Amino acid sequence: MQLTAEILRNSLVVLHFIGLASLLGGFLTQMKAMGKGTAKIVPAMVHGAWTMLITGLLLVGVREWMAAMEWAGELDNIKVAVKSIVLTVILVLVLRFKKKDAVAPRVFGIIGLLTIVNVVLAVFW
Ligand code: HEM
User: Fold this and answer.
1) How close is the Cα of 122 to the center of ligand 1, in Å?
2) C-alpha atoms less than 13 angstroms from C-alpha of 12 in its C-beta half-sphere
3) Comparing C-alpha atoms, which of 96, 89, 113, 83 is closest to residue 41?
4) Mean of pLDDT values over 74-84
5) Which residue of 2, 16, 52 sits with most ligand 1 atoms within 8 Å of its CB, as the best mutation to test the pocket?
6) Which DSSP symbol is given to 99?
7) Exposed (0-12), middle (13-18) or buried (19+): which is 112, by Cβ within 10 Å?
8) Helix and strand tally (H, E) in the chain?
9) What number is the average pLDDT over the span 53-71?
10) Can you tell me where the transmembrane regions are (predicted)?
11) Of 16, 39, 75, 85, which alpha carbon lies 20 to 30 A from 122's?
């Protein structure tokens, strides 16, 4: 049972990274256009943001289960809450501007910046 939980958790972490690659990678493809004020929210960013949310929530569930069974330590709930708030802002911006032909550099930059903020929070906190 513990092995199942570990395989599930590791698989979700892999999917969490694929979501990050999609969100950040989509953003990076638009960096040049951002400089010209013609950046677009590409579908990879929308799919990546949803993937981060879904895999993140499932990871919390699996970690809670593992902690209850004493197979892993407790998650830091404040860290998860902060990451969730940051991702919610990203998701709202991505969904709000996905139909626009050009997104203002400031708005577009915030999406990339907040994504990096969440990577830093995940790694350093
Ligand atoms: C743009 C948004 C996000 C980014 C860039 C991100 C990034 C990361 C990274 C790099 C890791 C691996 C490092 C570590 O284990 O701490 C990680 C793990 C994790 N993330 Fe996220 N994350 C995001 C959103 C979320 C959200 C919204 C949740 C919860 C609702 C979440 C829950 C988790 C959990 C529980 C782990 C730990 C997995 C484990 O070690 O058992 N993440 N995240």
Assistant:
1) 6
2) 18
3) 96
4) 97
5) 16
6) T
7) buried
8) 5, 0
9) 98
10) 12-29, 41-60, 80-97, 104-124
11) 39
**Mean pLDDT score of the chain, rounded to an integer?**
97
pLDDT tens digits for range 4-22: 999 999 999 999 999 999 9
Residues 111/45, Cβ–Cβ less than 8 Å: yes
Total residues found in the chain within this entry:
125
38 CA distance to ligand 1 middle (Å): 30
Task: Taking residues 82-107, report their average pLDDT.
Answer: 98
- DSSP secondary-structure letter at 103? -
Mutate to test the pocket of ligand 1, among 22, 76, 118 (most ligand atoms within 8 A of CB): 118
Domain ranges in the chain?
2-124
